[in-house]
Specification:
Blueprint: E1 7-12, H1 15-25, E2 72-82, E3 91-106, E4 109-122, E5 125-137, E6 157-162, H2 165-175, H3 185-190, H4 201-216, E7 219-226, E8 235-241, E9 244-248, E10 254-262
Antiparallel strand pairs: 1-3, 2-5, 2-7, 3-4, 4-5, 6-8, 7-10, 8-9, 9-10
Helix pairs in contact: 1-2
């Protein structure tokens, strides 16, 4: 299957949107430049209702993601490289290309593995290069027993925080993420088989980047992998042990693991 052609989106980095994201996350207001990972609040892919799938995302086969015949989407992880800071208020461009898309059979059944690359530029200079790993699966069986996630362990640096449904809704709005598992609890439970509203993978990744940056300094590279969902209202512990940062759920499960590299 030939992957779709690359496409580009231009956007002005509106400071008001960054201020709204700072309020949502409880962070200081950015001073002139965009904090790491906050480019996710820009470059929206806004599609009309007839071009959306049942999960609220744009239908596969539209844009950079081919249709692999599997309806259930999960953000599995990714990696980012930062080159130069992005200035607020200025026009930037994000180019997206599908690096690979293949269908395989795993222990849980058919899998669609999709890898995207996003390159964000400003004034002709690359500011962020991001790889995004997506997994597509068959429709969920809500009665099935979920797999046992790995144990997270502990770390020298630990910070507890939780995400309520309002925070998830605001983050979905600011990133134009229509996935219903983040705001439609009945859909999340009955269709996707989750225990409740799912905290966004990018929201956890942003928290790990913030933690690592405060302790290690500005980052040049960050890679992460989701291992288990975290649900709205659960207490999460953000942990840092050297260059490894991870999220521990309330029962000790590992929700996300990452590696950070200081600039």
């Amino acid at each position: 299957m030939s992957p779709p052609a690359p496409f580009a989106v231009k956007d002005r980095l509106d400071p008001a949107r960054a201020m709204a994201l700072a309020a949502t996350l409880g962070r200081p207001l950015p001073q002139g430049t965009l904090p790491p990972f906050w480019h996710h609040a820009y470059f929206w892919d806004a599609q009309p209702p007839e071009r959306l799938g049942r999960d609220g995302h744009p239908k596969v086969g539209i844009g950079a993601i081919p249709d692999l015949g599997l309806p259930r989407r999960m953000w599995a992880g990714g990696a980012l490289d930062w080159s130069v800071p992005m200035r607020l208020g200025e026009v930037s461009e994000k180019t997206t290309v599908c690096l690979s898309a293949e269908r395989k059979t795993g222990r849980s059944g058919p899998l669609g593995l999709v890898q995207l690359e996003h390159v964000v530029s400003q004034d002709g200079r690359v500011a962020v290069r991001e790889r995004q790993d997506l997994v597509y699966r068959e429709a969920a069986d809500p009665t099935a027993t979920p797999p046992t996630p790995p144990d997270a362990g502990t770390a020298p640096v630990e910070e507890a925080r939780h995400y309520d449904p309002v925070t998830l809704f605001r983050f979905s709005a600011l990133t134009f993420n229509g996935h219903r598992i983040h705001y439609d609890v009945e859909y999340a439970r009955r269709v996707e088989g989750h225990a409740g509203l799912v905290v966004h993978g990018p929201l956890l990744a942003e928290g790990l980047i913030d933690l690592a940056t405060r302790h290690l300094g500005p980052l040049s590279r960050f890679s992460y992998r989701a291992t288990a969902p975290l649900f709205a209202g659960e207490m999460a512990v953000f942990c840092l042990d050297g260059t490894r940062a991870f999220v521990r759920g309330p029962d000790g499960r590992l929700c996300m693991t990452s590696e950070a590299e200081a600039a």
